[in-house]
Write a structure and sequence with these properties.
The complex is a heterodimer of chains A (102) and B (322). By secondary structure, chain A is mainly alpha-helical. Chain A has seven helices and no strands. Chain A has helices at 5-12, 27-31, 41-48, 52-56, 59-64, 70-74, 81-95. The longest helix of chain A has 15 residues, at 81-95. The termini of chain A are far apart. Chain B has 322 residues and is an alpha/beta fold. Chain B folds into two domains: 5-199, no CATH class; 212-317, Rossmann fold (3-Layer(aba) Sandwich). Chain B is globular and about 55 Å long. Classes of the chains: A mainly alpha (102), B alpha/beta (322). Chains A and B meet through helix 5, helix 6 and helix 7 of A and helix 1, helix 8, helix 11 and helix 13 of B.
Chain lengths: 102, 322
């Protein structure tokens, strides 16, 4: 894994990215209607470590999130999970799809 | 191949920028529901549909198309479609709607207008300027285009002198009440869902609806907007017997709707799982969101009846001649 500190800095620009509050308890993963094991806690960990390629390589996972907030309603750390996933989408739209201005 | 995310989101962004909607529709389609209702134009308090119910037939049509293309070798056609859509609105060609579905969607909006009138609420309508709120662009992270659109929608509302908005669906409620104020300095608009307005109003004595149903809470109403008690109060007040499903209220389970654009297969799986949870409580499912209605009704087997809450409320509270 290659760590790129600028990736995390970019995520914070104009966004409410608070994934650092995650305690990695796994409640979100257990409750997710999609049952995607990677999402969202491991994905956030990659983002917090500046693993740009690791995050950008998970586009299907990131766009699969329903933003239904069932995880968020039960998160003991009060992480704004849906908004964090949305922030990752903003990053993917910018870095992978050239949709920054869209 | 899966549905290409870049082309699909690109089309959405192009549509929002050029045509101010996710699925741009003609004036006649958007306004057909108003025919004969005589709703005054404009006013300080307006009913605001955000075009969501009007989009349901197009969403259904698009969903039927996308299901064919997902994981087929033709999914590359989306790249071509995005290029063409920049110049010609492809929505009417890609989403050929059915007359019956249009009639159902229009009836729901007429229900809402008649319910508000029965409750003595005075309201106008913006007709051509009843614009889509931009939910899909927001959710997919198209932030610049969404912010531009939100500012435009707000400027239109303010140009009409609107002070209060009565919304019909949870997504438009969420955009106008919770998301727009974070983007627009000095935002001043009172936004209430029609369910909130009705729950606080004096409704006519109901003709009790003799039916047992189960309510599917919309994720957005339940977890973002706190609209939980109002639909229950209105339904039970109208004589409807309510059975709660295994996941309800703040712990409601998604209908799968948010995935129908990019992952229609998974969207259908979640909808079928939710229908199964609901039917264990009752085969009569009530929704309070056009997208939940669209997704759950497509997934429901014949013996399960999915209806919008406004159908039951109209039956209970709107006098026959209104």
């Amino acid at each position: 894994m290659k760590s790129d500190p600028t990736f995390l800095r970019d995520l914070h620009v104009g966004a409410e990215f608070d994934a650092q509050l995650c305690m990695n308890c796994g409640t979100c993963t257990a409750l997710c209607p999609l049952g995607i094991e990677l999402m969202p806690r491991k994905l956030f960990r990659r983002a917090l470590l500046g693993d740009r390629e690791g995050v950008l390589g998970q586009k299907d996972t990131i766009y699969s999130c329903l933003l239904c907030r069932l995880c968020e309603a039960n998160c003991p750390a009060g992480v704004h999970i849906a908004e964090n996933v949305r922030t990752l989408r903003v990053a993917l739209n910018r870095e992978l799809f050239g949709l920054a201005e869209a | 191949m899966p549905i290409p995310i870049d082309s699909t989101l690109g089309m959405l962004a192009d549509n929002l920028r050029k045509r101010r909607s996710a699925l741009p529709m003609g004036r006649r389609t958007r306004l057909a529901w108003t025919k004969g209702l005589g709703i005054p134009r404009g006013g300080e308090t307006v009913l605001y549909t955000g075009q969501m119910w009007q989009m349901v037939p197009a969403i259904n049509a698009m969903s039927r198309q996308l299901a064919k293309y997902e994981n087929s070798r033709f999914s590359g056609v989306f790249r071509l479609a995005r290029s063409v859509n920049r110049f010609v609105n492809l929505t009417p060609f890609l989403a050929r709607t059915r007359a019956k579905e249009r009639a159902v969607a229009n009836a729901r909006l007429r229900n809402v207008a008649r319910l508000l009138r029965a409750a003595g609420v005075t309201f106008g309508y913006l007709y051509e300027d009843d614009l889509y709120a931009g939910t899909l662009a927001h959710d997919e992270g198209l932030d610049q285009g969404f912010a531009r659109h939100a500012r435009f929608v707000y400027s239109v509302l303010k140009a009409h002198g609107v002070q209060r908005v009565i919304t019909v669906d949870p997504h438009t409620t969420n955009m106008l009440r919770t998301v727009y104020p974070k983007l627009i300095p000095g935002y001043a608009l009172e936004v209430r869902s029609y369910l909130e307005v009705l729950a606080e109003s004096t409704l006519p004595t109901p003709r009790p609806v003799d039916k047992s149903v189960t309510l599917h809470d919309s994720c957005v109403y339940a977890r973002s907007e706190g609209v939980l008690e109002q639909p229950r109060k209105l339904l039970t007040g109208g004589g409807v017997r309510l059975s709660e499903p295994e996941l309800s209220g703040k712990l409601t389970f998604c209908c799968g709707g948010p995935l129908e654009t990019l992952f229609p297969g998974r969207s259908g799986e979640i909808a079928r799982a939710r229908v199964e949870q609901l039917r264990r409580a009752s085969p009569n499912i009530v929704t309070a969101c056009p997208l939940c209605f669209a997704n759950l009704s497509r997934a429901a087997p014949d013996q399960v009846d999915v209806r919008d809450i406004s159908d039951y409320l109209t039956e209970a509270y709107v006098p026959a001649e209104a």
